Queue: 2 jobs
Job 1
Amino acid sequence: MSASPQTGQQPSPQQMAAMQQQIALEAQKHNMTPQQFQQWQRQQIEAEAKKAGMTFEQYVNRLKQQAFEQHQRQQQMAQQQQVAQASAQPHAEGQGGQQVPITPGTPDPRALAVAKWLRGQDLKPRTCILNGERKDMIRVKRALRALQSPTYAKASSKNPLLPPCTSAATASEIFKLLPLSLLALRVSKSDPHEGHNHGSSKPQKRVKGLWTVKIEQQQDISDDLHYVWLYEGSQWRQKLYAAGALATIMAVVMFPLWPIKLRIGVWYLSMAMLGVLGLFFLMAIFRLILFAITYFAVPPGLWLYPNLFEDVGFFDSFRPIWGWQEDKKVKKSKKNKSTTDGDAISKKSVTTPTSKASPKENGSSVKKRNLRPKVEEIVED
C-alpha cells in the first residue's frame, strides 16, 4: 500500500484559488454564502464521524488517505496504459502493416463467407498434424490467386458478404479476415521430438503430406507461408453419421421393445450368419486335411481355393477353385522371368541412332543401360 501524504505539505496558491472557486460554485448551487456552505459541510462531516465512532480529525485524515490512494491507483492505471500502447506500436509497424492482430470473438460474417468459398475451391491442400489432429493446410499463394480469379469476382457479385477484390493488396486484406476470426492460422513445420533428449538411431522416412506443424504467433501474409484450416464447414455429413450411429445404438438398446416378428427375423438372420461363419471354418479345416493327404499321395499337394488367405479381393479369394502347391524356387523363377522379359521389351523399345561402325573401330565399349524400375526412399535430413 502506498504511503499516506505528508501532513505538513501545503497546497500551492493555484490549488488554493481553484478550491475557493469550487467552493463558491457549490455554495451558489445551494443558495448559500461560502462561509455558510463550509459550516454546513463541517456539520455533515462531524455527523458522519460520530456514526463511524471517530473524532473529527481522525475522520478527516481517513478521507484524505482514501483520496490519496485513489489518486495513486489512477496514476498506475495511466502508466500501464502508456506502457501497453508503447509496446504495441513497434509490433504494428514491424512488417510494414503485414501482421494481423487476433481478437477472439464471434467470427465476422464476411470471414465466414470467404472461408466457405475458399474451402470449396481446389487449393491443393496438404494434410498436416496439429496438436495430434489431422488438419488441412494450404499455401497463401494459392489462396490469393483464387481470390483474384474471375470465379471469385462472379461469386462476390452474387453474394454481398464476399468483399470485392480489385488488386493483390485487396486480396491480402480479404485473406486477413480468416486469422482475425480464427478460421485459419499461420503454421510452420516443427519437429515432434523437439525438446526430447533422445536421438533417433535410424533416419526417419518422410511421409508426404504429413507435416507436424505448430501455430506461429505472428500471423503474416506472404506467398510462401502456410495456413491451417480451423474452419470445418457445416459438417452436415458428420452430423448425419452421428445421428445414424445414435439411432442404431438406441435401436439395439430397445431390442426388447421390438415387435415379435422383427425379433424373430433378427434371430434367424443371426443364426444364418453364424452358419456361414461355421461353414467357413469347416472349409478351412477340410482344405488343410485335403492338402495333407495329397502332399504324400500326389506330391506336391492340392489346395482347395489356393487364394483363400492371400492378399486379394473378396471374389478373387475363391478363384481358382483348386490348384497345386508351388515351391518357393518356382515362384522366384517366375518372378525373375517376368522381370527379365520386361527388361528385354524395354531394351527393344528404346532405340538410339548409331553409325554403322563397330564398337571395336570406335575404340569404345558399349555400356548396357539398366532400365529396371527402382524404388527410392525419401529420407528426411
Job 2
Amino acid sequence: MPGRLPTTSDFSSHVDLTITPPPPSQAPVNVLILLHGLGDTNNSFTTLGKQLALPETACISLQGPTPLPFDLGGFHWGDDIIFDQATGQMEFDTGFSKITRILTSLLETLVHKCGYQPREIILFGFGQGGMATLATAASFDAELGGIVSIGGPLPSSLIAASSTSPSKSKTPVLVLGGSSKTLITPDAVSRLGSRFHYVDYKKWPDKVADGMPRNRNEMLPLMQFFSRRLRSRAGVPEGSVEIG
C-alpha cells in the first residue's frame, strides 16, 4: 500500500516545514524533501515544490533549524557559524550533526508512521542544504530514492570518515554545479564517490557559478533524474502489493 499524505502534526513541533500535496487526484506515492540554501527560508522552496508539480509526489519544504545572527535574516543548516576572515563570507561547511538528527527523525517518521519505503523518498538541497542532504544520506541505514545537491559538496566530516567507513551508501546522487566558480570541483566529485556508489555529475556549461536552474535546459538533468527515481502506481489496482 502506498504511504499516506503526511501532515505537520506527524512531525516534531520544533521542526518548521510546509507540505505540498501531489497534483489533484493523484496519490502521494513519493515524498520530495526540499532544503533551501544558506541564509534563505523555506518559502522559496515551498514555491519550488508547487512549480515542479511532480506526479504522485508530495513535497516537504524544511526550514533551517537556526536563524542567522546579527539580524541578517534567513536560516542555516550548520552546527556553527564561521566567517572566513579573508572574505568575510559565512562558511558552508560548519558541521551537520544537528540537521542529520532532524532529517533522520523525519525520514523515520515518513517510513514508520506514514507508510513510505525509504526508496520512495528523495532529498533535494541547494548549497549548504545540499551538504546537509549528503550528510544524512551517507549515515542513513537504507537506500533512499535519491539525493539532488546543487552546489553542495560532501561535508569535510564525511571526507575524514571515508577511510574508516565500512561501506558506501547505495543512495544514488545527482550533483550539479556551475562551469568555473563552483564548489563542485573534480576533487569534490571524486570525494562523493568515496561515500556513494552512484554519483552523477552535471556541469552547467552556460552557468558560471552554482545556482538554481533558470531555464528548461538547466532543469533537464533534474527532471531526467526524477523520471528515473520516482515511483508510480498509475494503473495499479487498489490493494495490490509490491513483491520484491
